[in-house]
TrEMBL record:
It is a multi-pass membrane protein. Belongs to the drug/metabolite transporter (DMT) superfamily. Small multidrug resistance (SMR) (TC 2.A.7.1) family. PANTHER family: MULTIDRUG TRANSPORTER EMRE, SMR FAMILY PROTON-DEPENDENT DRUG EFFLUX TRANSPORTER SUGE. It is found in: Cell membrane. Its main location: membrane. Pfam families: Multi_Drug_Res. This is DMT family transporter. The chain crosses the membrane at residues 32-50, 57-78, 84-102. Keywords: Cell membrane, Membrane, Transmembrane, Transmembrane helix, Transport. Coiled coil: none annotated. InterPro entries: EmrE-like, Small_drug/metabolite_transptr, Small_multidrug_res. It comes from Shewanella submarina.
């Protein structure tokens, strides 16, 4: 269940970061509400995830997946073009997250 909470926290965090651009300098209330609620839910879910996942693992996975998700969402929603080196960097993040996840079963 902890991993589900972690994924929900990542989704909430990523959506709030993507909505931040849409606030137009905090001038649009609906995206601003999405930012506030997204961050609130992100931290609630992260806290719940940390009941069963070590803090360092939870935070590393949360941050890495959030970076990757925000990058992907901003590419599709805002049509932001990213060069090959960014995608190579994202691949390194994904590999690092995979290594962390694989080691999770051996660290308690």
């Amino acid at each position: 269940m902890s991993w589900l909470f972690l994924i929900l926290g990542v989704v909430a965090e990523a959506l709030s970061h993507v909505a931040l651009k849409a606030t137009d300098g905090f001038n649009k209330p609906l995206p601003l509400a999405m930012v506030a609620l997204g961050h609130l839910f992100a931290f609630i879910f992260l806290g719940l995830a940390m009941k069963g996942i070590p803090v360092g693992i939870a935070h590393a996975v949360w941050a890495g997946l959030a970076i990757m998700t925000v990058t992907l969402l901003s590419t599709f929603i805002y049509q932001q073009h990213l060069d090959t080196s960014v995608w190579v960097g994202m691949a390194f993040v994904a590999v690092g997250l995979g290594l962390i996840a694989l080691s999770q079963g051996h660290s308690h």
